Fold this protein.
Amino acid sequence: MKTILVTTSLVLASFPQCAAYAQDANPSPAPNPILQERLRNAQVTEQKLPNGAVLTNVKFSGSLQPNVDLDCVPISEVSGQFNPPALIYAAKKCIQKEQYPKAWALLTTANGFAYYDLKRLADRSTQGARTVLTMNAFADLSDAQRERASKISKEIQADPAQVQAYCAELTRIGPPTYEPQWAILHGIGVFQEPRNGPYLTNVDSKALWEEVLKNCCTPQKS
């Protein structure tokens, strides 16, 4: 038995939210040019399961990719040119080096940038990009590393002084200045309107960034 699943990094069955796009899309006899383009440049691998089923994993070229290779850098060295994959993989390096406060700042920034990116994109099939990216990046961390990172993150988030210091840096950085190809190339062209190319035209980018700042700059109870 052979099962073919189209994903951008992991088996689609692992992410129920991905299935919603197929359910919501109206059947159409016309081919999807975006999906056809993605498939032409895709990396295809197969995995045979113990029950004999074969899962075909399709990874779209450029999807969820960092636009720069960062080390475990402090937040003072971050700019709006670094996309979420770059920041998340840098955060992973910090966790591996047990530099958890740096990891928290990088990951918080990555999440804020990803929220800003995805809210502006018209392709509904991009909306799971941050979840898939994070799961891929942290898949090989140990349970102890995850638990330690989570514990320290909650402590930092509950400390108004540390959150305020971070907020000053995020305000300095400002909104992303890159094109969010990491997310655009994750999608398969399930567009909503009104839009101009990949972007929704009814989104107030300034207000959206203010929302990011509010969310990231508000201490959370542990």
User: Anything to note?
Assistant: The CA atoms of residues 120 and 204 lie 9 Å apart. Residues 1-25 have pLDDT under 50 and may be disordered. The chain has two domains: 2-59, 75-216.
